[in-house]
Specification:
This protein is 31% helix and 19% strand. By secondary structure, the chain is of the alpha/beta class. The structure holds iron/sulfur cluster.
Length: 345
Amino acid sequence: MQKEKLYGKTLNELIAVTRRIGLPGFAAKQIADWLYKKEIQSVEEMTNLSKKMREILSNDYEVGLYAPVNVSESSDGTKKYLYKVLNNKYIETAYIPDNDRATICVSTQAGCKMGCIFCMTGKQGFQGNLTTNEILNQFRSMPEFKSLTNMVYMGMGEPLDNLNEVLKSLEILTSDWGYGWSPTRITVSTVGLIAGIKEFLEKSRCHLAVSLHSPFDEERRKLMPIQRTNTIEEVLDIIRNFEINSQRRVSFEYILFKGLNDTPLHIKELARILNGIKCRINIIRFHQIPGAQFQSPDLGTTINFKEALNAKGILTTIRASRGVDIQAACGLLSTIEQNKPAMEC
Ligand code: SF4
């Protein structure tokens, strides 16, 4: 019988574990300490639990950490790790060093349901939600774990479509009994799921990044099918009406497509719809994917677009493209080959 994994459980869940198997309540905090503050790989190493307690615990439970199965390294230092997850599916995770920062970009689903037409993960379809264990194992089992300073939920999948597991992972990352990270080191990205945004804003203190890509309804529908049911106007209303504290950042991701969403009309409309929201825009260069009709604008157009938005009072930056040569950059993550059923190989 497969043992249940302890790594990825919240303190409340560990308390439930200790109750279920008849361990004293204080053992839950000790187990959390071993899981999230010390670098153990097995229950046997939890040496402040008695031998008997360790035996009872390991009858049904294991720590549940596992190393990536492959790594690709970019000429710019970015790395892309391949992890095996649910039912023999695979996901990718990016490691992005940048001077004194090192950011991990984690996946929350194998594939994605959202179908954004500029994204390789979207083309892959959906294979399943990751558990909290599978989300956090990308972080803990990355060889660069100790050097990580920031975390973005911008890998494969839509984080708010797997909200419970994402919220539990954020609780473990930011709680005193967990990793004790400041929420300001963590950004969660979304296409704008109405049902999830409010709950995310209420239950977490981490930064929010919304994929915007066009301020116009028709155009955004073509790029991001989610606009048909969860409009950006509704998303902005939720953000506008939520009291966001000064520590917390709301940003909008804007992939710039040549001749499509890079015009003065777009600048004017962006300024109009974002009016009253304290936010920033991150411009991302479009990274070519097979079958897509789009192109990246030249650097001059990109800089002009950025400056025009800044002139309108919206703090705008151009995000550097990292890991393009290993398909680790924005929109390029895909495990479609690895996730094919064995019959198709
Ligand atoms: S951009 Fe994000 S939400 Fe859209 S298909 Fe890709 S992974 Fe899914």
